[in-house]
Amino acid sequence: MSEERSAEELAELNDRLMEKNHALAQALTRAGRELTKAKSQLAQLAQPPLTFATMVKVDSSHTDEDGVQHASAEILNGTRRLVVPVAANVNAARLTAGATVMLNENMVLVEQRGTDTLGMIRTVKETLADGRLVVADASGNPQLVRRAGSLASASAAINAGDRVIVDPSVRFALEALPEADDADLVLEETPDVTFDDIGGLDEQIERIRDAVQLPFLHRALFERYDLNPPKGVLLYGPPGNGKTLIAKAVAHALAAGSGAGSGVFLSVKGPELLNKFVGESERLIRLIFKRARERAADGRPVIVFIDEMDSLLRTRGSGVSSDVETTIVPQFLAELDGVERLDNVMVIGASNRIDMIDPAVLRPGRLDVKIRIDRPGAAQARAIVRHYLTDDLPLEDGADSDALTRVLVGDVYARDERRHLCDVMNDRGAWSAVFLADVASGAMLKNIVDRAKTKAVKASIVSGTPVALNAAMLGEAVEDEFEETRGSVLDADPEQWSRINGMDAGRIVRIRPVV
Predict the structure, then answer these.
(1) Which positions does UniProt annotate for ATP binding (predicted)?
(2) 169 and 188 in one domain?
(3) How far apart are alpha carbons 221 and 167 in whole angstroms?
(4) What distance in Å separates the CA atoms of residue 506 and residue 488, rounded to the nearest whole number?
(5) How many CB atoms lie within 10 A of CB 512?
């Protein structure tokens, strides 16, 4: 029994020792892995840093009797030009100009990477015969750069006006960028406004139809009489009287009946073309006319509409601005009647201040047709109001839209003390009375109707049932508009206010409230 017990104890002891050996082997394995990891980390920490540089060209290269390559390369390290040896494991024949290369602590070229995709942006001004490029920064300062290897085979793809990325030393053009997307400067659309939506401007609409629509709708007749269509039309006059609406209606009419496919309406955001960087505004003007020519190449009529034209094409040398117009105006004129023809393209400008537009822009042969959009009289005002005060609205029993229109227009155009805005004095010392009718516009009339509709909506919300429009609401709306207009007139600069509003009293030097 004692011998059997001893054998069992020895077996148990052997099992425990084997478990301990197994655990010890696992611990040794883990310790080995940790030691290997530590050695690797230590080697990384001890490794010297590599330096980035830009490859220029292979300076020299030869192979000795043992087949070992010996080469050196010219590189740019920041602004320093260096000639460094090339490691034997780097194929010197594959080193590319403009590519990023790595230098070890001994300034040996040990690796070539791809071309950097980040850097300063320059605009190409000229492409030389040998492939070099003249580029300019935002201030217009020119510099001469080489092409990187990635651009060496694309000589025809880089033209004046293109954008390229250059390296920090500004010696290499690394990559050509796609054309700048300036679509936000031009709204391209076909408006849904028709001439039927415009009231009180029948005479002006007839004139612009003769100037704009006829050349596109009757091309054969114009060719038969050797008559060229006008290049441009200027709509001018006090603000809020339908200049922009007329331009949109023209575009809609051309799109509907041109016979050559849908017309295009390019609405230019004039103030956004003004750029503090030299040459940038001129580039944007070229881009707009280039887009117009492309759209018109298939015979479609294209309208380039420039609202607030006086902000972009001011009289040169006037001193009222930064004189940026001294270069913008010539660029606009060069595009309008330069070497490249503007077939099927017409410029329509709108302005409240024709006196501020450069005379060269206004001469015949450029903006040939000038149409004044004046303030509406009482008859025109009734036509305008009828567009917004219609029979399908909820009207008071016994009233119709014609009757309410007469009431509203009669109130607005009354020349009595109720609608006496202010008195103005001209530069000759003569005083004149100004009434609400003297500053009425299509936009004001629409706003009065909208005020009355808002009052009806609020009354309907309070009562819980629809409330009909009536003469009292229209009268309150006219009174509200009168009070707001009087406040704005009294706070305005007299001379500027009179020029914008086209007052018949002459140059206004003083405005006084009604006592």
Answers:
(1) 240-245
(2) no
(3) 58
(4) 20
(5) 12
The tally of domains found in the chain comes to 4
Q: Find the CATH number of the domain harbouring 79.
A: 2.40.50.140
3-state secondary structure of 174: strand
- The two tokens of residue 288 are 């707009």
Based on the domain organization, do 276 and 367 belong to the same domain?
yes
Is there a domain that residue 7 lies in?
no
Q: Fill in the amino acid letter for 324.
A: V
Q: Are 269 and 305 in contact (CB under 8 A)?
A: no
Q: Is the pLDDT of residue 259 over 50?
A: no
Side chain identity at residue 58, one-letter code: V
The residue count of the chain comes to: 515
Indicate whether 221 and 368 sit together in one domain: yes
Q: Are residues 435 and 306 in the same domain?
A: no
Please name which of 351, 362, 258, 360 lies closest in space to residue 310, comparing C-alpha atoms: 351
Model pTM score:
0.66
Tens digits of residue pLDDT in 78-106: 878 899 999 888 888 888 888 899 999 88
- Residue 292 and residue 341: Cα distance in Å, rounded? 11
Q: Closest by alpha carbon to 310, among 265, 276, 361?
A: 361
Question: Cα 238 vs. chain centroid, distance in angstroms?
Answer: 27
| Mean pLDDT value across residues 253-278 | 66
At residue 504, φ and ψ (nearest 5 deg) are -75, -15
Cβ pair 127, 154 in contact under 8 A: no
DSSP strand pairing (172-177 vs 232-236): unpaired
Of the three residues 177, 194, 225, the one that is the final residue of a domain is: 177
Domain that holds residue 473: 378-513
Residues 301 and 382 in one domain: no
As annotated, the binding site includes 240-245
Nearest to 440 by CA among 482, 492, 403, 398: 482
Same domain, 66 and 211: no
CA 348, 349, 355, 360 dihedral sign is negative
Q: Which residues are part of a known binding site for ATP?
A: 240-245
pLDDT band at 257; cut points 50, 70, 90? low
- Contacts of 257 by beta carbon, 8 Å cutoff, 6+ apart: 213, 217
Q: How far apart are CA 406 and CA 40, in angstroms?
A: 94
**Integer CA distances (angstroms), 160 to 90, 153, 278, in order:** 37, 17, 16
Q: E strands within 190-293?
A: 232-236, 264-268
Flag whether 361 is in a domain: yes
Q: Where a domain ends, among 337, 355, 372?
A: 372
Residue 468 and residue 411 in one domain = yes
Q: Does residue 469 sit in the same domain as residue 383?
A: yes
Dig out the tokens for 143 from the structure. Answer: 């510099």
Calpha distance 302→186 (Å, rounded): 13
Q: Are 233 and 423 in contact (CB under 8 A)?
A: no
